[in-house]
Amino acid sequence: MDWCDIAVLSSVLPITGYSTDRAVMNGDGEHSQTEQTESKQDGGGDTEQGEDPNEQEVIVIQDTGFTVKIQAPGTDTFDLQVSPQEMVQEIHQVLMDREDTCHRTCFSLQLDGNVLDNFAELKSIEGLQEGSLLKVVEEPYTVREARIHVRHIRDLLKSLDPSDAYNGVDCNSLSFLSVFTDGDLGESEKRKKKGSELEQIDCTPPEHILPGSKEHPLVPLQPQNKDWKPLQCLKVLTMSGWNPPPGNRKMHGDLMYLYIVTVEERHVSITASTRGFYLNQSTTYMFNPKPANPSFLSHSLVELLSQISPAFKRNFTALQKKRVQRHPFERIATPFQVYSWTAPQVDHAMDCVRAEDAYTSRLGYEEHIPGQTRDWNEELQTTRELGRKNLPERLLRERAIFKVHSDFAAAATRGAMAVIDGNVMAINPGEETRMQMFIWNNIFFSLGFDVRDHYRELGGDSAAHAAPTNDLNGVRAYGAVDVEGLYTLGTVVVDYRGYRVTAQSIIPGILEREQEQSVIYGSIDFGKTVVSHPKYLELLEKTSRPLKVHRHAVLNEKDEPVELCSSVECKGIIGNDGRHYILDLLRTFPPDLNFLPVEGEELPTECQQLGFPRQHRHRLACLRQELIEAFVEHRYLVFMKMAAMQLMQQKASKESGTSAAALSVAPPPQEDSVESQSPLEGKEAEESIPGLAQVKELAHSLVTEDGFDPKSREVVVNACKAVGSISNTSFDIRFNPDIFSPGVRFSDDNTEDIKKQKQLLKDAGAFLVSCQIPSLVKDCLDHTALPMDGATLTEAFHQRGINVRYLGTVLEFIDKAPTRAQLDHVFRIGITELITRCAKHIFKTYLQGVELSALSVAVSHFLNCFLSSFPDVVAHLPVDELASRRKNRRRRNRVAGGGDNTAWASLTPSDLWRNIVSEAQEYYHFTLQCVDQAVERYGLQKITLLREISLKAGIQVLLKEYNFDSRHKPSFTEEDILNIFPVVKHVNPKASDAFHFFQSGQAKVQQGFLKEGCELINEALNLFNNVYGAMHVEICACLRLLARLNYIMGDHPEALSNQQKAVLMSERVLGIEHPNTIQEYMHLALYCFANGQLSTALKLLYRARYLMLLVCGEDHPEMALLDSNIGLVLHGVMEYDLSLRFLENALLINSKYHGPRSLKVALSHHLVARVYESKAEFRSALQHEKEGYTIYKNQVGEAHEKTKESSEYLKYLTQQAVALQRTMNEIYKNGSNASIMPLKFTAPSMASVLEQLNVINGIIFIPLSQKDLENLKAEVQRRQQLQESGKNEEQLENSQLELEDKLPVD
């Protein structure tokens, strides 16, 4: 799908809002660049002043739409809503998508007889206004148009077929929400049934979803979607063997020939001519291009086929009806390909377009672009050069950058696979396979091996494998800083079949020159020879502050100092296009000394205690950008604290303490409360760091009143020295990335400076282990961070700047923690991640030795060794399907494997697990207890391990039940391995303006201004749509927040509609069982319940529980929330016994993870008590409510309303119990003629269930009148002015953290 289509969609569908309360966090781990880079883009986060003009600009953008009438041949005239910014082409796209006009592709739009230019904006067309009539006029075909037409018809025929999603092509991906909601949510017919719905719900969940079930089936992961039973319209549609038309037929207007077999088994040959499509008289073996009689000449292929095949006519109409009924989000292409690790067995059908695509270099729609292949470098750099002065310009620029990046990532992935599969000729074919380089479709590909001993000193192949990802991080960082005039290469890193391929765009002219001549800045030999260039220094100087890179001098081979403002490896090359490119950014960030032992250097004690420095496989271990930011933020606070203390002492001695008193209000910031926040710049920072506002004032006073006072200057100098600032007059911390690089030398004059830089690096390493790791564990403990699987755990690491190579350290830290039991879930996820990563490292080298014909056998053998319980797994070497046993020696020049091609077959389970244990020790420095029983010992789930290894290694397995426990036969056979997918890392360009709106919206919401917040977030949504198109993770977060706001403000149907979009998008963009998707399902269930759709709510909750069991198992704090939700809904539909099973499980999990005295546990007790009350088992009810009451009394005191409520409820239960006992006694005494008082058994009302649901999901409603609202606002403003010593922000901050992505409204 093209940009224009998406814009059309946004004008046709009411595509509304999304958010990022966790958007950056959801970024698929690899890409979650730190948030603050956004706020820097427009000059260092001075968004406060910038906001108003922005809002003005936005209003300009949203020109009001108008309606035009469209008249197409064969249909009635209809109205179409358009907007002035749209291009004419976008109307074309809408018509090609509409049910009644979708079969037309080759037409022009005419207004009063004048043909409209496809690329003109509507506002520029004279006479086009509200109510104008546009005529659709059929145009003659060309070869290109005929091909587009056939391709479009094929797409329409395949529109409900999920095979593209399984095969991971054309940015299709799976979505199953509609299976559980039976079509669209909130439809009016359903509402009518609302009253009678209670009786007819079957609430029993499948056995494997019940608490305590040991079964974890895989098949329900992809429930059967009834729409996918294909409606067959044709048996075969393919290009005829008579193509291309001979010269004499070309001159009759023949463009190409098609061969078709209809469902009725009629074989026909069709000519595509300039006038349209008609039947000719050719057969399979005889060419007779004359028109048949009748020829059924039609302008569209669909019209022709409808005349010759009744089944086609019937099924095509039905298919298009179904197609347009699907939610647009189920069919729009995603910006980057998402691969599914499971797939059912799909029949392989004949498909001419697919066959043709496989043999052309088509990428996207190549043949629609003049000049065939795209000049990727030119496109990537030109989009960067677009204007960015005002909002419309920036939107256009960001949209173009994003689009070209997503196209480039798709092209690079396709090229990398072609390279490894051996479909691309090398540019140096004579060399050994691992040294070969490739060019395909204007992209340069190289393999991740150490070619020509380039990395010999840095760790050989391991370094060559790590360098591309480091380089990508560098490209990402420089791209985010976005300095005009400085260019980076398009870079994509693809791991496929055990090889790492780097794909880069090509600098114009670089292939004609030797590298030595081209490099005018940096070094090509790791610092032995170094050159510099004033223009590069000027450009890089602009990046040095945001990236914290220190400008420094290194010695070249003649011992002369050379000025650099980057690491030595960073090379500057001026292309033939005159642009200044930088490449090889693998050392953008400083080295991580914890993994870089250096002779004669001592690390701080906190590192040494943990056994650092440790030997690592390569010497390229760098600190993450997030860590650098957090470290600098931390140092800034230390700096301010020191300056404040010294100044106070001075002032106190100078004058009576008026101003000193003012200063002493500033509390010394607690370090940990700071660490846990991401370092933001500008406005946000002031809100998130206690006491920072005062510190800012202090800094201001330092500069103003005492600007000339030598004493206060001395204060600043001392503070600068103490924190290692590079300047003596202001706080400025930057790192020299070349410290400790082998081969780099510094002159002796700089010794002092170098010493300071070395210390800074050691401090940063110490900060990581002594602050960031404990803060991560603390966040897991108080559930601010809630990892559910490997990807979300990795994300939590990266957000805090911790590299995954610290996984072993973190696990040991957790294992020794006093609260070890409450961190069980994190420990288990960590161990799973550790084992699967080690297995992936082994799998990578294992695959390199496998030839293509044995791939499925080899992968299934590896999985058997890894997961099967079958003791002697033997690899059945493939019985060569072609029987010839002659060893094929000529095939050795395939991709590097070398060695005996069947070595992989000798792997045994005990070998593999021994290797995993030694890999864990070597790489992560973690000792895995026990070799074979790791799964039992750590309580892991094999199905979870299968999911993790498949996602990491790109394996796609057959969707079926695998028996991991059988000791009689292996779990996997070669038939179970369906595919190997690439794992792709790329840059994720951001929508900066949208992100600012989003953040301002969030801030407003947290201050309680819901309506304003809602408007800002809607605005953000529009801008996100403008840049990213309709599908993106950040849009998904935007929608989730919007739905939550709609819900809180009482608009349930709107909440439902937005949340439905969020779920669909999360399934499509992140994956059907991604942890975020699971949470979206839970939110949607709540809104369904509020809308009276009880059975749907239950289905959604059961789905969420199934997915969660698959992804992380039952023992997880989030499971308690899920089970409380299920239990409450079941209570509401009077399924008391089932309800108890879930609620009691929630109680157990809550007690384990929140401690037995937590308020969550008290609430759990209360929910259980209510169900017992409904069952009239008052004794059990009393018991639970007493537990809850005790917790409330101890935690919040007798006077608190919660305690009072609980005490009231206890009284009520006691009365009920007494009444029941009385009645029973009466019956015993007087037998059948007892006069029985009617007892009150209460079935819970829906309202009371909903109220409890809101409470457990952290949603608080405040019934306020307009007057209350005014007062509240005034109060909030008053508080903000007071900003009583930063405490309010802390409270806001804390409440925001506790409720994690729940919105507190104070």
UniProtKB/TrEMBL annotation:
Species of provenance: Scleropages formosus
Protein name as catalogued: Clustered mitochondria protein homolog
Location within or outside the cell: Cytoplasm; Cytoplasmic granule
SUPFAM superfamilies in alphabetical order: Hypothetical protein c14orf129, hspc210, TPR-like
Gene: CLUH
GO terms for MF: mRNA binding
KW Cytoplasm (keyword) present: yes
Tagged with keyword Repressor: no
GO biological process: one example: mitochondrion organization
Domain of life the protein comes from: Eukaryota
Family: Belongs to the CLU family.
A Pfam family annotated for this UniProt entry: CLU
GO cellular component: cytoplasm
